[in-house]
């Protein structure tokens, strides 16, 4: 059976204002985890209140997404490194070097994502 977890993004209207919430699905099958995001429209009847600032539930979702994005990048980095090893063995050093640079840049991006989460949590 496939594992299925998700946060979600949806648009909805109330009090004349439309807004969006995240929708991310993560699926595990054949030993691999795959994620994708999408949005859908959603309507509410009746009045309800919540903030549209990055607080409360949206802050929780963002914190989860920041972790997810960094982890997802590292999953890709592992795959990239496999290709670097193959290319190096084949003597294609220029290509391997370019991908190695991409891996390093992704690690820097992950540092920024983790820093963003730290700042988000400090402001909570």
Structural summary, described in words:
By secondary structure, this protein is of the alpha+beta class. The protein is 52% helix and 26% strand. It has 2 domains: 1-49, no CATH class; 51-124. It has helices spanning 56-89, 93-123; strands at 3-7, 9-14, 17-20, 24-29, 32-37, 39-43. A hairpin with a 2-residue loop joins strand 2 (9-14) and strand 3 (17-20). It is elongated. Residues 1-59 are annotated as: Disordered.
Provide a quick synopsis of the model.
The chain is α+β, with helices and mostly antiparallel strands.
Question: Which helices and strands, and how do they pair?
Answer:
Elements: E1 3-7, E2 9-14, E3 17-20, E4 24-29, E5 32-37, E6 39-43, H1 56-89, H2 93-123
Parallel strand pairs: 2-6
Antiparallel strand pairs: 1-4, 2-3, 4-5
Helix pairs in contact: 1-2
Q: Which descriptor suits the 3D outline? A: elongated
Major β-sheet, in short? 3 strands, antiparallel
Radius of gyration: 19 Å
Helix content: 40-55%
Order of helices and strands: EEEEEEHH
Strand order of the largest sheet: 1-4-5
Determine the structural class based on helices, strands and strand pairing.
alpha+beta
Please provide the count of β strands: 6
Q: Counting H and I runs of at least 4 residues, what is the number of helices?
A: 2
